[in-house]
Specification:
single chain, alpha/beta, two-stranded antiparallel sheet, 7 helices, 5 strands, globular
């Protein structure tokens, strides 16, 4: 039977149940979070709040969510895994990609296969490598 990868491991498609396709457990700006930590607050409290809200969601019959928080929105899969471990009744699928309106995040600007090769590194597309790693 076909399976879908979730944060806690593969789940059979037939057991996904009611699914919300566009959710964000957390949306963060890393620069703000790092430089103004009081804006983010206590990590444990934020995780506990997310756990509570997702348990409430599961209690009303939602079985799966797709968290589309990608690079540029504070994507941090270890935090999502931490939440998922406390809400095992809810499948969490994470997306891959970059959030952008008109240009890719600065990190990727000069990391093309050509520039990687010119720096003596293997010629590779860093974004492709990241995204393939995410989905595999």
């Amino acid at each position: 039977m076909p399976q879908v990868p979730t944060v806690l491991g593969p789940v059979e498609v037939a057991s996904l149940g009611r699914t919300l396709m566009h959710e964000h457990i957390f949306i963060l700006t890393a620069d703000v979070q790092q430089n103004y930590p009081e804006e983010w607050g206590d990590e444990d409290a934020r995780v506990a709040d997310a756990v509570r809200q997702l348990r409430d969601l599961a209690a009303v019959g939602v079985s799966t969510i797709v968290d589309v928080t990608v690079i540029g929105q504070g994507r941090y899969v270890p935090r999502i895994r931490r939440v998922a471990e406390q809400v095992p009744e809810l499948n969490i699928v994470v997306a891959t990609g970059c959030y952008t309106f008109d240009e890719v995040p600065r990190y990727f600007w000069r990391r093309t296969p050509e520039t990687e090769a010119s720096l003596g590194r293997p010629s590779r597309d860093v974004m492709v490598d990241f995204f393939v790693r995410d989905i595999t």
